[in-house]
Amino acid sequence: MAPESSSASREFTVGPLRQSDAPRCAELERILFPGDDPWPARAFVSELRQPHVRVYAARDGEVLIGYAAIGLLGSAAEPESEIHTIGVDPAHQGRGVGRALLAALLADAEAHGGPLFLEVRTDNDRAIELYERVGFERVGLRKRYYRPSGADAYTMRRPAPAEEEKQ
């Protein structure tokens, strides 16, 4: 079961995303990523249909306030994972919603094994700080990664738990 979290003023839960949530996710994408080709509803539906992808929703009551997806990739001998997306309604940011969604993704990645990767805009300081706090390191720069804005992205990597123990 995914983690449940609360803030001082209101509680929210994290659980599986439903296909019926796809339009709300697309709405949040347009708000959060207006210049960077936000995902349409059909992209979320497609993610839900992939057997190697886990997709989560954060809800305040019945209202979807955030979403996150992770791909569990590689072979049993060489597993790895990648975070596909995390988004939180701006009206609910700063309440721990992003941290709770990330915790669900980290639990999946750790159960799957291997390192975990993601891309993040180089100007998204809040996200970069959150990722670094949970063990991600910048390992590369992708120039003009986001379209159509042309914004750069860092590639970040979180080592597998076994790798962390060796260091």
Task: Tell me about this structure.
The chain has one domain (4-166): Gcn5-related N-acetyltransferase (GNAT) (Aminopeptidase, 3-Layer(aba) Sandwich). The protein contains five helices and eight strands. It has helices at residues 22-32, 41-49, 97-112, 125-133, 161-166; strands at 4-6, 11-16, 53-60, 63-74, 79-88, 116-121, 137-142, 153-158. Strands 1-2-3-4-5-6-8-7 form an eight-stranded mixed beta sheet, with helices on both faces. Strand 5, helix 3 (97-112) and strand 6 form a beta-alpha-beta unit. The longest helix is centred in the middle third of the chain and has 16 residues, at 97-112.
Short description:
By secondary structure, this protein is of the alpha+beta class. It is built from 5 helices and 8 strands; from the N terminus they run E-E-H-H-E-E-E-H-E-H-E-E-H.
CATH architecture: 3-Layer(aba) Sandwich
Percent in helix: 25-40%
Separate helix tally: 5
SSE order:
EEHHEEEHEHEEH
Strand arrangement within the widest β-sheet reads 1-2-3-4-5-6-8-7
For the record, what CATH class applies? Alpha Beta
Tally of separate domains: 1
Radius of gyration: 15 Å
Which stretches are low in confidence, meaning pLDDT under 50 for 5 or more residues running?
A: 1-9
By secondary-structure content and strand pairing, the structural class works out as: alpha+beta
Give me the CATH superfamily: Gcn5-related N-acetyltransferase (GNAT)
Main β sheet profile: 8 strands, mixed
Cα(first) to Cα(last) distance is 30 Å
